[in-house]
Write a structure and sequence with these properties.
heterodimer; A: about 240 residues; mainly alpha; Four Helix Bundle (Hemerythrin (Met), subunit A); 2 strands; B: about 120 residues; Methane Monooxygenase Hydroxylase, Chain G, domain 1; 2 domains; 4 helices; flat
Chain lengths: ~240, ~120
């Protein structure tokens, strides 16, 4: 029993430390890794509570699927583009602190008064073992007494499917234009200096058309053209 | 029952210890002298015009989200499959309703073309 308490303390300590690391890390990918560590430790705590199925679900859904989703979002958004990613407004800090305090008070009250601790059900360790295991019992309970929650879950998942499709649909208008991908830069600079006459001459020759759908940018220097693809696209529209 | 997890716990802690101690050892021993030249992506050649990390299409996001949703569906089917004998026809019909609700979502996204990469 003492070993169990020791292991529980170790697991919860690592879970709390990695949860704190997750919100304090500056690199979002490091945050995601710290979140994995938290999830794995919580799964181990679930195992200690004899909730093996929950532990497996925790690993499969949270560390597997949700983390994949978070990493995909990081890939898509590129957090460097978000200037206010880490610097929250002071209002947010105060508000977050207040919400955290309320949550802490709620949990403390629940633990101190023990109102959330229900009467132990018929499924103690012996009963579960006699029925053939954890998952067996969950299956029997879930599909005999919880018809409505199951079908409500199906509806929630259906709504999530349609919502994901709606939010993430590649907009026909905002399809990555071929222009963005096929920008080519021609530097007209050479060792003896830029040939200023060449640029209007080439512009007049209209080689744009010969290059197909490519957008040719003529610059005197390679460093002259260092704008991002989007900026340059805007420039092209304004011209 | 918990004793059967001791082997897994020992394996995980050993793996973490070995990996972590090697990383720590390397961090302690190796010299660290960063210089601007070492930060360059290429030793020679033209610097990148745009950031090397391009933007990904949002289709990846849709696929990942659909994976999460059908992952959860599979999680719900698993206890039903294990307790199939006890649940009999009643459980079978429930699962049919459950799957057909999600099948509607699958057909919807199929029709919307979310599964195509053209």
């Amino acid at each position: 029993m003492a070993a169990e308490v020791l292991i529980f303390n170790l697991l919860s300590a690592v879970a709390i430390v990695s949860a704190v690391a997750m919100i304090t890390m500056r690199n979002p990918v490091h945050s995601a890794i710290a979140l994995v560590l938290t999830f794995v430790n919580v799964a181990a705590i679930f195992i200690m509570l004899r909730a093996e199925f929950l532990a497996a679900v925790q690993i499969i859904v949270y560390t597997g699927a949700v983390l994949v989703l978070i990493l995909f979002v990081l890939m898509l958004v590129n957090p460097d583009d978000l200037p206010e990613f880490h610097s929250g407004k002071p209002m947010q800090n105060v508000f977050g602190f207040g919400v955290g305090l309320i949550l802490l008070a709620e949990i403390s009250v629940a633990i101190l008064t023990r109102t959330v601790v229900a009467e132990p059900g018929p499924w103690n360790e012996e009963g579960v073992a006699a029925a053939g295991g954890n998952i067996q019992v969950i299956g029997q309970l879930l599909y005999s007494g919880y018809v409505l929650p199951i079908q409500a879950t199906a509806l929630v998942l259906l709504a999530a499917t349609i919502g994901a499709l709606f939010l993430g649909r590649p907009d026909e208008d905002q399809e990555p234009s071929p222009k963005r991908r096929t920008v080519a830069t021609i530097s007209l600079a050479h060792t003896r200096g830029a040939d200023d006459d060449l640029i209007p001459a080439l512009r007049a020759a209209n080689i744009k058309r010969e290059a197909g759908d490519r957008d040719l940018i003529m610059a005197r220097d390679a460093d002259e053209f260092t704008t991002s693809a989007e900026e340059e696209e805007k420039k092209g529209q304004s011209e | 029952m918990l004793e059967s997890y001791a082997a897994i716990g020992m394996m995980i802690s050993t793996a973490f210890f070995m990996g972590g101690s090697l990383l720590l050892l390397g961090w302690l021993i190796r010299p660290s002298k960063p210089s601007p030249a070492k930060e360059q992506p290429y030793e020679s050649g033209v610097p990148d015009v745009r950031p090397p990390r391009g933007r990904y299409t949002s289709r990846f996001y849709i696929v990942a989200l659909l994976f999460v949703i059908f992952d959860i569906e599979a999680i719900f089917l698993f206890p039903w499959a294990v307790a199939f004998d006890q649940l009999a026809l009643y459980g079978y019909i429930q699962v049919l309703v459950f799957i057909s609700l999600l099948l509607f979502g699958l057909l919807y996204e199929w029709k919307k073309g979310a599964l195509e990469w053209a």
